[in-house]
């Protein structure tokens, strides 16, 4: 199951910088994860300072 970024996102970009499959892009006000590219590795959640990425 893919991760999804909550509204807690502060747009720091750490999730996108560390995503091994480049599934994360900057969206409108927060980063977004492409569910088709996400491999559910959890790297985004591990690097997020505000725990915005959540497993769906």
> Compute the gyration radius: what is it?
9 Å
> Low-confidence spans: pLDDT under 50, at least 5 residues?
none
SSE ordering:
EHEEHE
Structural class: alpha+beta
Number of helices: 2
Mean pLDDT: 96
* Helicity level: 10-25%
Tell me, briefly, the overall form: globular
Outline the biggest β-sheet. Answer: 2 strands, antiparallel
Cα distance, first to last residue? 6 Å
Q: How much strand?
A: 15-25%
User: How many runs of DSSP E, i.e. beta strands?
Assistant: 4
Strand order of the largest sheet: 1-4
Compact overview of the structure:
This protein is α+β, with helices and mostly antiparallel strands and 56 residues long.
Question: How would you describe the overall organization of this protein?
Answer:
- This protein is of the alpha+beta class and 56 residues long.
- The chain contains two helices and four strands, in the order E-H-E-E-H-E.
- It has helices at residues 14-18, 43-47, and strands spanning 3-5, 24-26, 31-33, 53-55.
- It has a two-stranded antiparallel ribbon with strand order 1-4. A two-stranded antiparallel ribbon has the order 2-3.
- The longest helix is centred in the first third of the chain and has 5 residues, at 14-18.
- The mean pLDDT is 96.
Topology overview:
Layout: E1 3-5, H1 14-18, E2 24-26, E3 31-33, H2 43-47, E4 53-55
Antiparallel strand pairs: 1-4, 2-3
């Amino acid at each position: 199951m893919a991760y999804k970024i909550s509204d807690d996102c502060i747009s720091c970009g750490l999730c996108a910088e560390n995503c091994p499959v480049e599934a994360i892009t900057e969206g409108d006000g927060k980063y977004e994860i492409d569910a088709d590219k996400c491999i559910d590795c959890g790297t985004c959640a591990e690097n997020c300072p505000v725990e915005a990425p959540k497993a769906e």
